[in-house]
Amino acid sequence: MNIYIMSISVEKSSEFGPKVQEVLTKYSDQIIARFGIHDSQNSSGFITKTSICTKQATC
Fold first, then answer.
1. Contact at 8 Å (CB) between 53 and 1?
2. 36: part of which helix (H) or strand (E)?
3. Phi/psi at 22 (nearest 5 deg)?
4. pLDDT tens digits, 21-38
5. What is the rounded CA–CA span in Å between residue 22 and residue 27?
6. For the chain, what is the mean pLDDT?
7. Alpha helix ranges (H) inside the chain
8. C-beta of residue 49 within 8 angstroms of C-beta of residue 31
9. Which residue ranges make up each domain of the chain?
10. Which of the 8 DSSP states describes residue 55?
11. For residue 19, is pLDDT > 60?
């Protein structure tokens, strides 16, 4: 088992946010923690996630 931390910067969150959410939901069984910050003035966001990956999982 390996633990990975990934940060994602999302520009134009109103446009790209739904697709990012779709991908994160697809792999939600591997995500053990997730934290997001939204900047409404610049319509952007920042997500940090922690995932557990096993040899059977694709990370």
1. yes
2. strand 31-39
3. -60, -45
4. 999 999 898 899 999 999
5. 9
6. 89
7. 13-26
8. yes
9. 2-53
10. T
11. yes
Position 43, amino acid? S
Write the single-letter amino acid at 38: H
Strand, coil or helix: 40 = coil
CB 9 within 8 A of CB 44: yes
Which superfamily, per CATH, for 2-53? Answer: ACT-like. Chain A, domain 2 (3.30.70.1150)
Torsion angle, alpha carbons of 48, 32, 28, 42, to 10: -20
pTM: 0.73
CB-count exposure of residue 45 (10 Å: 0-12, 13-18, 19+): buried
Residue in 17, 30, 24, 28 with CA at minimum distance from that of residue 57: 30
CB 7 within 8 A of CB 47: yes
